[in-house]
Amino acid sequence: MPYAAPGQVVGLLGGSFDPAHQGHVHITREALKRFGLDKVWWLVSPGNPLKERGPAPLEERLIHARQVMRHPRVEVTDIEARLGTRYTAQSLSKLQALYPRVHFVWLMGADNLAQFHLWQDWQEIIDTVPIGVLARPGQRLSARMSRAATLYAPYRIPGRFGHLLARSQPPAWCFVNLPMINVSSTAIRASGAWSA
Q1: Please, which of 109, 135, 172, 174 could form a disulfide with 130 given CB 3.0 to 4.6 Å?
Q2: Any idea where the Cytidyltransferase-like domain is (predicted)?
Q3: In sequence order, which ranges of 41-196 are alpha helices (DSSP H)?
């Protein structure tokens, strides 16, 4: 398991990373800056319950992700496989029990906010940890009009105050616009460039 000191702020970026790409790297670096994070842990998931097709083998995705994401404050992990969790809410609960004095922030692209209400126990997630949302190509409007964004509108922190997110009491979320890199794992797989 990765190390985090008491009081540190750790951003958690979950996903299948099938494959990891420069878009993931970009939003990770931006999250470190915009949300004042000490570290980011990539949670390379064993599988995504919302996707019909299973991902490439976990070990291959981890190896590739570690080649793509090189930063001294970012760790690529298989935490969910180690914890035996399948859903984000379960993972967060176990991580908070293991690291009771660490401040976690859940990170997601705007595409995930747009369908966040489909996640198992999604309201438990937003009521448990602050959420940092990073703009993705073509997803700004659908994310801002999503069920989660509408229901939790009173708890939104303006992007210019993103540095306050990590120490905010949940529910709290912040949407930041960034210069975007238009690349996706789906497009990479479709092009045949990832055949793990």
Answers
A1: 172
A2: 12-190
A3: 58-68, 79-83, 88-98, 110-114, 122-128, 140-144, 147-151, 185-191
Asked if residue 3 belongs to a domain, the reply is no
Q: How many CB atoms lie within 10 A of CB 161?
A: 10
Sheet containing 103-109: which strands, arranged edge to edge? 74-77, 39-44, 9-15, 103-109, 131-134, 173-176, 156-157
Question: Is residue 26 situated within a structural domain?
Answer: yes
Q: What φ, ψ does residue 40 adopt, rounded to 5°?
A: -130, 135
Percent of the chain with pLDDT over 90: 74
- Lookup result for tokens 């001294």: 72
Helix (H, G, I), strand (E, B) or coil at 91: helix
Identify whether 2 is part of a domain. no
Residue 166, domain extent: 9-191
User: pTM of the prediction?
Assistant: 0.88
Q: How many domains does the chain have?
A: 1
Dig out the tokens for 192 from the structure: 């045949």
Dist. CA 94–CA 49, nearest whole Å: 19
User: Per-residue pLDDT tens for 138-182?
Assistant: 556 778 889 999 999 999 999 999 999 999 999 999 999 887 666
What the block records as the tokens of 77 is: 């992990």
Looking at every residue in the chain, the average pLDDT score rounds to: 89
Distance of CA 73 to the CA centre of its chain: 15
Cα dist. 33→143, 160, 163, 171 in Å? 22, 12, 8, 21
Q: What is the pLDDT of residue 96?
A: 97
